[in-house]
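Need tokens for this chain, all 259 residues.
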Amino acid sequence: MDIGTAKPSANELNQAEHHFINSHSIEQPISAGEYERIALKKIEALHEENNIVILTGGSGLFIDAVCNGLDDLPKVDPNIKVELKVAYEEHGIVYLQEKLKKLDPEYYATCDQLNPHRLIRAIELCLASGEKMADLHNQKTIKRPFDIIYIALHRDRKKLYERINVRVDQMMAAGLEQEARHLFLKSELSSLNTVGYAELFSYFRQEIELTEAIELIKRNSRRYAKRQLTWLKRNPAYNWFHPNEIADMVKFTEEKMIE
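Here are the structure tokens for all 259 residues:
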């Protein structure tokens, strides 16, 4: 999944030590809770020799899990799990999208709407608790044994979308279609129900043309970026910078550390 996940290049990996790159199989699901556990263990080890550790991403839920912890979530009736699985198999992902949108429109606006595993999990929790996801995840905040400086990157929306479109073209030129074909036999895995792969899988099944698949990747990538921004803006602790303001980010971080 080198191209589709935009893994750091060999040159980037040589410039700074990275963690959790090529660390897990696509057949090994990692929940936010599991990520919280293994990430905190890694952070603790890194802090033995480093004052600063950089966590970057990605999924807002996973970032929140590490920074704030996850709440004790309600147990889900096994019958609910079966019913949702059957409904998905019979009616497809649109059914799950509409169901979650009705139960929790706020979370629906920020979640990965193309990932059936995430959609089903959110629906399960809403039905089991009678609450919305935001209420479930805001019941408590765990104090971590380290200070957190929140930084988010932002640029003009039009330019952001233009860059996303160009990036998709670059990924296709780099061999994304061939990479997706190599993974196609395992296309039902939740780890592959993501933007960039799901659209090409539809093309391989002859459901759409290649040109449409590429346009859908661009559209869904733009929508995912919008959801990321919506999620991050929920947290007033984030400090926003343009990607080119590297010197300002470094200065800001240094000042925060002195405080």
